[in-house]
Amino acid sequence: MNQTYTLLSLCEDYPKIEIPIIQRNYVQGNDETIRRHFVNYLVKALTQQSPVELDFVYGAERQDTQLTDNCAPNNCAPQVDKVLIPLDGQQRLTTLWLLHGYLLALEQVSNNPEQLSPEERKAQCQPLARFVYETRQSAKDFCGYWLQEVTQRACPELVETPSKYLRNCAWFDPEWEKEGTVTAMLGMLDEVASKRKELQEVPYGRLSECIRFYYLHIGKFGLSNELYIRMNARGEQLTSFEHFKSSFYKVIQHHSSLSAIKEKMEYDWVDALWQYRPKDTHVTDHPFMKCLSFVTEVLHIKAYKGEEDYKTPQPVMSKADPYTELSLIESVYQEQAHVTYLEQTLDCVENLKGIQYANLLKDYDTKKTLSFQEILSQMLTDGLKTVNQRILLYTAITYVQHHNTIDGIVPLLRVVRNLSTNTVKQLRDLDKIYPSLDELIQVPNIYDYLAQLQGRILGFSDTQLEEEKAKAQLRLARPEVNDLLDEIEDFFSGKIFNLLCEVAETATLNEWVEQPQRIDLDTLQRTFKAYQCLSEMPRIKVIKHSKLKKDTTHCGFREILGDLLMTDIYQAANKRYYCIPDWQTARSMFHFIKGFADFWQEGEKGTSLFVDSLTAYCEKVEREEIQDLIAQTQGDLSTLTHPGEQLFVYYVITRRLMQLSAHDFFAYGEWGNRANNFAWLSLPSDQQDNPTYRSLFTRGIVLSKAEGKTAPTRMIYQKYKDQFRYSYGLREGVALPPEYSKYPNYDQLTSDPLSTLKEWAK
Fold first, then answer.
1. Helix residue ranges, H only, 357-455
2. Which of 103, 638, 687, 708 has the maximum number of C-beta atoms within 10 A of its C-beta?
3. Tens of pLDDT along 610-646?
4. Which three-class secondary structure state does DSSP give residue 21?
């Protein structure tokens, strides 16, 4: 039967406790995180008078034989003393020894009613003197001097700033700063001193009442150095994970599944997490900590009640993960249900590996589409980056815990992805979203549920929810649409309302919900195919015609955005004509592509001719639009006043008369980053007679026909990306080709480009 000991009772049983030369240095005080967690644990036990057990200390015995010094030389009687050699537990014993000495020193400068007399203090220190470091002479000397300081005097500086005080003592050798054991002891004393306010009311005797450990005697010392090599791996330090694991077990020591969790940590969870371990390592510490961090974050957020804005816990150390801080771990896992959720999460990792969903979530940083397996791997390796990733992984974990299977999970993940990616949200919104997901995962069939749902789903966009309800009704009414709808939803991340309305030729959602047959599957397929081809159109490298001389790229959308300048993709306000954020899924975009899909079908169907077909269709549309503008202005295009109409004319002149690329017309930058915006400035007076810039329009710019306001007649457009600075004035690098005389191919224009354009449109 293993017996529990205190440090003092162990010292009473053994005249000497020796840390031998072969033993590794004391290191617990050198790791800030480890020492902080351990000290907090001990101080909490002392202040709350809640006894704790510090696991096993393993030791062997050595017999020391000495001669008594009070006998004649020829009649010496041998004195045999047993010496305890700690084989495992040195770090804990040393920390306890330092804590005992510190409390003795603290009692001398406090008003504790149990303050010891000098004689009592000396007597109390005698057992502690039996604890000896033989690893280095410097460590042995430091320990002796430390006890001497504790015994001799009551010194406030000793308990307030121990390391500073001891370093200033005459006996302190500066060379000891190179000794790892000494510096670790100084660090641990400072850590303990940081808790002196809490410890002031703790009597010295409480140490033996509250802090105990098991001691296992493994026999007499007979294996020499081999025993240390086996027990301590020749001086290798315990990993931070091993220290954490020990502390974590103490946090959950009262949980009914503690034994099972310990066993799973060594076997089942190692197998489940093995493939996610860092390269060239053979332990699963890292993926376990990442999983723990995610689960702790989830539980912390769910426990938040919303009285104030949610704030992410701040790490004690700058680069530390706040969700693996022991203080937060202790707070979160006080509840039995939270420990159970963590256990079940790790249990279901094997099930999660079986979820096959390739095109689940777009990563807007890498421009790639992530599969569910990539999201799972990211959580267990690098940690999740976005709120959307957290939502999807939480959905999967909770679903598997509830149903104990992955059957039926893909439709739920698709719906949750649709709702999540089309909802404006932040991390603090998850306290509302997680409970909503808890309800959704219990639904037997997500589409049946949505088709009948009358209310809201808290945390998600009402607009997107209405779309999900409509699509659920469409799926139930026409099951043949499911496969195509799955593919389209994955491509657009769920936001396809405008596409469906365009194909059905309806203005509202209710119209095609009430008449689902209006959605022609062939037209839907062709339009989607044309959109895909447009998005995958090879990016063509071009050189900007300016002093910048930089390479950039564009794809199919840049080729058609000029043809959409007069549509709802653009809005006018405050001397700007800007592209809306969600222009890629605007109704006008799908209208244009649907028309192109019909045109493409009528001609050659080979994908190799896609670019030629697109160019031909764009020219066809441009001619028709220019002819409409000619009719609108009674043949005088110079009288156009709306910025969309003027810019469209400029765009067609750029592409068809000047033979320049769409890139020359738009601002620098990727097409997906909204480098498609325009503003305007007055033409300077010094450009009136010998113009570098010219406007082809005579009546200025009017934003709205209802306003009836006209700006100065000669306004010059400037293209920009995200912001436009009026203070910069006109700049050649952002000028439009038809307005800037130094632009390449400008000389190809006649003195009357608008007349030439009219001829081209015929």
1. 372-381, 387-403, 409-421, 430-440, 446-452
2. 103
3. 888 899 999 999 999 999 999 999 999 999 999 999 9
4. coil
The answer to whether position 374 is within a domain reads yes
For the cut 90, the answer to whether the pLDDT of residue 147 exceeds it is: no
Name the amino acid, one letter, at 636: D
Q: In Å, how far are 92, 143, 271, 338 from 39, measured between CA atoms?
A: 11, 20, 33, 25
Q: Could you tell me how many residues make up the chain?
A: 762
> Which of 124-133, 270-279, 482-491 is the least confident region?
124-133
Burial (CB < 10 A; 0-12, 13-18, 19+), residue 705, is exposed
Give the separation between CA 230 and CA 553, rounded to whole angstroms.
Answer: 62
Cα angle 610-616-621, degrees, rounded to a multiple of 5: 125
Q: pTM for the full model? A: 0.69
Q: Give me the chain's average pLDDT, please.
A: 84
Inter-residue contact 375 to 352 (CB < 8 Å): no
Express each pLDDT in 210-269 by its tens digit: 898 878 776 544 444 444 444 454 344 456 777 788 788 888 888 888 889 988 887 889
Which residues touch 334 (CB under 8 Å, ≥6 apart)? Answer: none
Count CA atoms closer than 13 A to 751's CA, side-chain side: 0
Single out the residue in 238, 273, 299 at which a domain terminates.
238
Query: How does residue 308 score in pLDDT terms, banded at 50, 70 and 90?
Result: low
Phi first, then psi: give them for residue 737, nearest 5 degrees: -55, -45
Lowest mean pLDDT among 303-307, 337-341, 562-566, 682-686: 303-307
Range of the domain at 415: 358-479
Q: Domain boundary at 294, 324, 347, which?
A: 347
Phi-psi region of 235 (alpha: psi -120 to 50; beta: other; left: phi over 0): left
Q: Are 527 and 590 in contact (CB under 8 A)?
A: yes
* Pair type for strands 16-19 and 78-88: parallel
Q: Which residues pair with 211 in a beta bridge?
A: 52
Residues 469 and 368 both lie in one domain: yes
195 φ/ψ angles, rounded to the nearest 5 degrees? -110, 20
Residue (of 178, 163, 173) closest to 35 by Cα position? 163
Reported in sequence order, the residue ranges of 526-599 that DSSP labels E, i.e. its strands, are 540-543, 551-554, 570-573, 576-579
Question: Could you give the CA distance from residue 180 to residue 500 in angstroms, rounded to a whole number?
Answer: 70
How far is C-alpha 446 from the geometric centre of its chain's CA atoms?
A: 28
Other Cβ atoms closer than 10 A to 621: 18
Where do the H-state alpha helices sit in 253-407?
A: 258-266, 268-273, 285-303, 326-332, 336-347, 349-352, 372-381, 387-403
| 737 assigned to some structural domain | yes
Instruction: Report CA-CA distances (Å) from 574 to 80, 681, 707, 724.
Output: 98, 12, 13, 11
Among 123, 15, 131, smallest CA distance to 63 is for 15
Q: Do 651 and 755 belong to one domain?
A: yes
Task: Judge whether 642 and 562 are in contact, CB under 8 Å.
Answer: no
Token code pair at residue 266: 């060594």
At 63 the three-state DSSP class reads: strand
Mean pLDDT along residues 414-422: 97
Instruction: Tell me, yes or no, whether 512 lies in a domain.
Output: no
Same domain, 305 and 437: no
CA angle 60, 209, 39 (to 5 degrees): 75
pLDDT confidence of residue 235: 40
Structural contact between residues 6 and 207, judged by C-beta atoms closer than 8 angstroms: yes
Tell me the C-alpha distance between 12 and 60, whole Å: 16
Residue 138 one-letter amino acid: S
Give the total number of structural domains in the chain: 4
